[in-house]
Every structure is written in C-alpha cells, then in structure tokens.
Design goal:
Rossmann fold; 2 domains; globular; alpha/beta; about 15% strand; EC 1.1.1.6; metal ion binding
C-alpha cells in the first residue's frame, strides 16, 4: 500500500546499490541540485560496493508531463532499467512520473523529513510556467523507499515542525465539518484512512516537539525515528488508502489561497507552516475548539506561526478577504447561510 519495501535506519543509504540490483542492473539517478551533492559520495560508494552501474542527472524543475517523457526517454537511451529519485518532495514527485513514463521500477531516497511524497502513489503536477496542473495518480506502488536517519537528523527543526503539522492535517481534514468518522457512516477504505490518520495525529503530537529538539542537536533518537516513520510511511498510507481523494480540505485550501493571492509575499513561509495556520481554522470549523487551542499551543512549543498576523499579514489587507472567499466557496463549505457563518467565524480565529 504505497511502497513495496520501506527501509529506515542509520546509514541505510549504503544499501542503495544492492537494492537497485534487486530490480535491475543500471540505475538512472535523479537528484536535486541542493540535495544530491550532500549524499553524492555515499551514493557513489554504495553503487561501487554493489558493482552496480548508474547514470546521475541533476534536475531542478517541478514535475511536468513534458519533463517526465523527456527524462524517461533519456533513461531508456542510457540503458537504465531502474529509476532512483534523491531529494525533497518535488524530486520524489518527478521521479515517480519518470518511472511511470518509462515503465521502470522506482526507488525513492528522500532527503527531507517534511513530506510523504516518497511513499505516496501520486505526484502533484505543474505546467511549463510553474502553475498547478492537477495530480497524476499511479496504478502501481513505489518499489522501495530508503530513509537514512543520519540524513533525517540533519534537518532544520523548522522543517521538521512544518512536516509534522502538514501530516497532522490528515485527521481533521478527512473529518471536515465534523469531529470524526464511523464505520457506519463512511466507506470502509475512507474509515481505515481516518483511523490511520488518528494514530498518526497522536504520534506526531506526542513526539513532535522532542524530535525538533533532537534534530537541533543532530541526534538520532526514538522521537525522531517515530516522527520520521509517521511523516513518511503512515501519512503515505493514508494517502494511498484514499487514492489521493478527499484527504485534504480547508487547511490545504487555505494554503492554496495564500500562494494564489499573496504570491511572492508568502514565499518565506513553508508549505506546512501555512497549512498549520489553516488547520486551526479547520479544527474550529469541525466544532472542535479545544482541539484548535491544543494545536495552537503545540505549534507555539515549536516556534511556529499560528495566525496571519504572525506571518505579517493583516485582516484589513484586501488579499485576506480574497483568501477567505477562496476557501469559503468550495466543496468543503456548504452554501447554506448557517454553514457560511460558521466558516466566517472559524476564519476569524486565524487573523490575529
């Protein structure tokens, strides 16, 4: 469900070459311009030790359909029979599209703890101008995910915190408009996804703050191990169970609105930081004010912003009203006056 093999431990990147040989004989390694140089020596040593051949290519752009075909053709022309993606969420998505286009198996080596993209059987797509272009859902899982804890322990605490809140959003967003799902009022796969999301939420809330502190000291600890597994595998399983549908709601719609209307002014803030602010609104809309307050306190413990004011934006800014309307007029908020008023009150909670 999402990945055929999942390896997570210290120094596990040394097994990359041997993992490639389980699937083929020559790897087409796609790496990000910032992330790949950090692991290049370890990657090359791994291939050398396994006597495995590879061709390395650096790629910077987000996932597009044209690049997927171009890179797939390049991999096949080089005689490669395995795709390896190394980098953050963007590179994980690119590698999945290339694997699908080439019809070749895929190994993902994430270098960011803040995303489940290595595990999830879908890619967020963009056009040549960098605008969102839907989602590419794959019919087969990733063959292997290799998560090296030595790499995870070198993450900035801010990135970990953002990833934690992005993953925690699954539970409140799946239950959008209410406080939970039951087996009787939902499809069994959706209910299973919700149950996994509940487990994930509790794990992330329990260990998130400690994991940030441990990473700040460069330590691989139980807390960091658990947060990594929750962010990567458990969150990926939730996405796989829902097939990428109905797993996001107001919090991620708020993120989209911020990127759409605040544009470059929102760039200093990470994906998970904006989703986290929207998550406070989501919990309030769900009729769970105590959960919203608990979440706000948890975010404060990791020095995260909790409102538009915290990231430098005012409720009087006309763009704020645009974001509010962008979120309000969507499938996640009913058009009835009562529901629209409940949403307006929920949005007001994140202005200051």
């Amino acid at each position: 469900m999402g990945a055929g093999r999942y390896l997570q431990e210290k120094g596990v990147i040394t097994l990359l070459g041997s993992e490639v040989l389980l699937l083929g004989s020559k790897a087409f390694v796609l790496g990000g311009p910032c992330s790949y140089p950090l692991v290049r020596d370890a990657v090359e040593s791994s291939f050398s030790a396994a006597s495995a051949a590879f061709e390395a290519v650096t790629h910077e752009a987000p996932a597009t359909r044209d690049d997927a075909r171009r890179l797939a053709d390049q991999a096949l022309a080089c005689g490669c029979d395995v795709i390896v993606g190394i980098g953050g969420g963007r590179m994980m998505d690119v590698a999945k599209t290339v694997s699908c286009s080439a019809g070749l198996p895929l190994i993902e080596v994430p270098t960011s703890i803040a995303t489940c993209a290595a595990y999830t059987p879908l890619s967020v797509m963009y056009d040549a101008q960098g605008k969102a272009d839907g989602v590419w859902r794959f019919t087969r899982e990733v063959d292997a995910v290799i998560v090296d804890m030595d790499i995870m322990a070198n993450q900035p605490p801010r990135l970990i915190a953002a990833g934690v809140l992005d993953a925690m959003a699954k539970m409140p967003e799946i239950s959008n408009g209410g406080t939970g799902l039951t087996c009787d009022n939902s499809r069994v796969d959706r209910f299973a996804a919700y149950q996994y999301a509940c487990i994930n939420y509790d794990l992330l809330h329990r260990y998130g703050t400690q994991a940030c502190q441990d990473a700040a000291n460069g330590q691989v600890t139980e807390a960091l191990e658990r947060i990594t597994f929750a962010n990567m595998a458990l969150t990926g399983i939730v996405s796989a169970l829902t097939r990428g549908f109905h797993q996001t709601a107001l919090a991620h719609r708020f993120y989209d609105g911020m990127r759409t209307f605040f544009g470059q002014d929102s760039k200093p803030w990470l994906h998970g930081e904006l989703v986290a602010i929207g998550l406070i609104m989501q919990c309030t809309f769900n009729g769970a004010p105590d959960q919203a307050q608990e979440l706000r306190e948890f975010m404060r413990s990791m020095d995260m912003p909790c409102s538009l004011a915290d990231i430098g934006f005012s409720g009087d800014d006309p763009r704020t009203a645009q974001v509010r309307d962008y979120v309000a007029h969507t499938e996640f908020v009913d058009d009835s006056p009562e529901c629209q008023e409940r949403f307006a009150q929920s949005f007001a909670k994140i202005i200051s």
